[in-house]
Design goal:
Blueprint lengths: L4 H9 L6 H7 L4 E5 L11 H18 L5 E9 L2 H5 L4 E2 L2 E2 L5 E4 L12 E10 L6 H8 L6 E4 L6 E5 L2 E5 L5 H7 L12
Antiparallel strand pairs: 1-9, 2-6, 2-7, 3-4, 5-6, 7-8, 8-9
Length: 192
């Protein structure tokens, strides 16, 4: 039987969309953030910076996922994005399932606005760090966005964004990760 990532997500995290900025509100005690480039630089401007960005993403993700481990990859879009773009819902060349879930960017809000609802699609695959280099590069250059990778065995969630990664860790305390990679963190008290 094929795994159903969307059913798993809802059973573990409810109606909260698998998006870093959303999850920070609901999983704050499991959250930390790392920047992908020195001095919190947002975008790479050279091949050396792209290599550094990929190295950092790979090292942090390898703390959360094991090679060959089942992971679920989620991509969310605002509910009108697909119609505007006329694009297929895909991640780094991999077509996502036609099934989708309408998940909230603001669960519990009294007034539901269109912008608060995200259409989320998913795929099940195995963790292979090099395979995801293309995806991370596309996110860093704003070609892709609102992506999350989650391991059903640990509940760890990794949300790359253009500038770094939001991490929601259940198998290891986020403070342990912060001690492993302190130079990759923001100097700000809120870690942003």
């Amino acid at each position: 039987m094929q795994p159903d990532p969307l059913t798993w997500w809802r059973s573990e995290f409810g109606n909260v969309a698998p998006v870093g900025y959303v999850l920070r509100r609901y999983l704050h005690s499991n959250w930390t953030r790392f920047h992908a480039l020195p001095e919190s630089k947002r975008y790479p401007e050279s091949q050396d910076e792209v290599s550094e960005l990929l190295r950092r993403h790979s090292q942090v993700a390898s703390e959360l996922f094991s090679t060959g481990e089942m992971i679920y990859v989620f991509q969310s879009r605002h509910s009108d994005s697909r119609r505007k773009l006329g694009a297929k819902h895909a991640i780094a060349g991999s077509q996502l399932r036609e099934a989708s879930a309408m998940l909230s960017a603001n669960p519990g809000a009294v007034a539901r606005e269109e912008a608060e609802i995200l259409v989320t699609r998913a795929l099940a695959t195995k963790w292979k760090p090099d395979f995801f280099d293309r995806l991370v590069s596309e996110i860093a250059s704003e070609q892709e966005f609102l992506v999350a990778l989650a391991a059903p065995s640990s509940r760890n969630v990794y949300c790359p964004y253009d500038g770094g990664m939001d991490i929601f860790s259940f198998s290891v305390n986020p403070s342990h990760l912060e001690k492993r990679f302190p130079a990759w963190m923001s100097d700000r008290p809120d870690k942003l």
